[in-house]
Design a protein that fits this description.
- This protein is α/β, with parallel strands linked by helices and about 425 residues long.
- It has two domains: about 220 residues, 3-Layer(aba) Sandwich (D-Maltodextrin-Binding Protein, domain 2); about 200 residues, 3-Layer(aba) Sandwich (D-Maltodextrin-Binding Protein, domain 2).
- About 45% of the residues lie in helices and about 15% in strands.
- The strands form four sheets. Strands 4, 7, 12 and 13 form a four-stranded mixed sheet that branches. It has a four-stranded mixed sheet with strand order 9-10-8-11.
- α6 crosses α7 and α17 runs antiparallel to α18.
- About 55% of the residues are buried.
Length: about 425
């Protein structure tokens, strides 16, 4: 469990982002009591393949067995599809009873529109053991979702390919990352995959570079005031442009998807086609679902934190990341709250950890993380001086969307460092 109040402060501050969906209808028209007296709880999640999908189906069945008369209707879908469908469901008033919330401006929008249930009293026990970890899903002292996984983004890499290219240790600085990429290319190995077709994987490079270039106070002020005037944000774009010009990425990266299929960015790493990918704590579980043996990279899986940038004002141990939480729609039946709480139980969280689906937040389950590389992230997570929430989540859809679009253009060679800042600030000004 995260123990620093500073971490909670940064994540909670992110939840003051722009407000969207105002005036949308709330409720779920497909759930609740049925004619035979049973109660249906609709649940949407994004573990859409492999053992993760099967596990969540089992979780639903186990809950049904413990709660006679309750039917959990599960929908598993690809991540980007889920986000789009969730937005549409909120607009139409047909939202699922239990769904994933990422915090930040997105959560603030849902709360402002009256779409999301206040769980402060209903889940007080769970909020108690979550401690500071719940901070990213709290607004004005109230908790609106229960985080079940929280971790940092970083570079996942293939140890065998590093060894083949003579890269003796994981890069600790930006220059060492550039040098490692050059060595890998010299050995005929593609250094990096990026799913720029989905935009956000490319955007993560700029987010993280900003965390390294900008001081903690600058980052906090930027989130609170939606202000990108500090020169550190331009420097972040210049850093990323330097990497792009070194041409380390997979062929066709501009149209490559993030996680769907063996030719996605995650699939290329999982199948040994590239040496590294910048991705979040979900990566081991995703890779397992993209290989025939269900093991992903297995023992060759390595992980290292985003490198320090020479001259940057950011703390090199600060982390960019985020998490996923279970939220309950405002008009969902009481059983939906019980189901959300059930998924934070030690039993469910241990199974989640054992399958490398993410980093559990229930402190009684953290020792169950099976993958050594994923387990190493726990120490990084818990010792981070502060966590910065992913920018597109922290700033909300309008600002985050404009930001991601311009970063994708940088990767395509059609933008520059200043234009990213200008596009982000323009979108932020419209939200103020």
């Amino acid at each position: 469990m995260l123990s620093t109040s500073r971490t909670a402060r940064i994540l909670a501050l992110a939840a003051t982002g722009s407000l969207l969906f105002a005036g949308c209808a709330s409720g779920s028209s497909t759930s609740g009591d049925s004619a035979d007296g049973s109660t249906t709880v609709t649940w949407w999640h994004n573990s859409n393949n492999g053992e993760g999908k099967a596990y969540y189906e089992k979780v639903a069945k186990d809950f049904e067995a413990e709660h006679p008369g309750v039917d959990v209707e599960v929908q598993a879908m690809q991540h980007e599809d889920m986000l789009t469908k969730l937005d549409a469901a909120f607009q139409s008033g047909d939202a699922p009873d239990v769904y994933m919330e990422r915090g930040g401006g997105e959560l603030a929008a849902h709360v402002a529109a009256g779409l999301t249930k206040d769980l402060s009293d209903l889940a007080s026990e769970e909020i108690g053991f979550l401690g500071d970890t719940a901070g990213g899903w709290q607004i004005d002292g109230k908790t609106y979702a229960l985080p079940y996984s929280l971790g940092a983004a970083g570079f996942w890499y293939n140890k065998a390919l590093f060894k083949k290219a003579g890269v003796e240790k994981a890069p600790e600085t930006w220059q060492e990352l550039l040098d490692a990429s050059k060595k890998l290319k010299g050995a005929g190995i593609t250094p990096l995959s990026v799913g720029a077709g989905d935009k956000w994987p490319a955007a993560h490079y700029w987010y993280y570079a900003a965390v390294r270039e900008c001081s903690e106070q600058t980052m906090a002020d930027s989130v609170a005031n939606m202000d990108f005037s500090d020169q550190c944000f331009v420097k972040a774009g210049e850093d990323v442009d330097e990497l792009i010009k070194a041409e380390p990425f997979n062929a066709g990266f501009l149209s490559t998807p993030a996680q769907s299929g063996p030719t996605s960015a995650s699939g290329l790493l999982a199948t040994g086609k590239v040496a590294m990918e910048l991705a979040g704590h979900w990566e081991p579980g995703v890779m397992q679902g993209l290989t025939e043996d269900g093991k992903g990279l297995g023992a060759d899986t390595g992980w290292f934190s985003f490198p320090a940038i020479e001259g940057g004002q950011g703390n090199p141990e600060a982390q960019l990341g985020g998490g996923d939480a279970w939220a309950v729609a405002q008009d969902a039946p009481d059983e939906a709250v019980e189901f959300a709480k059930y998924m934070l139980s030690e039993k469910v969280q241990r199974g989640f950890a054992e399958l490398d689906m993410g980093l559990p937040t229930n402190p009684k389950a953290t020792d169950a993380v099976a993958d050594p590389a994923l387990a190493s992230m726990l120490e990084v997570r818990d010792k981070a001086p502060y966590f910065q929430l992913y920018f597109d989540t922290a700033f909300g859809a309008s600002v985050g969307g404009a930001m991601n679009d311009e970063i994708a253009l940088l990767f395509a060679g059609k933008s520059d460092a200043q234009k990213i800042v200008d596009a982000s600030q323009d979108a932020a000004d419209l939200e103020k």
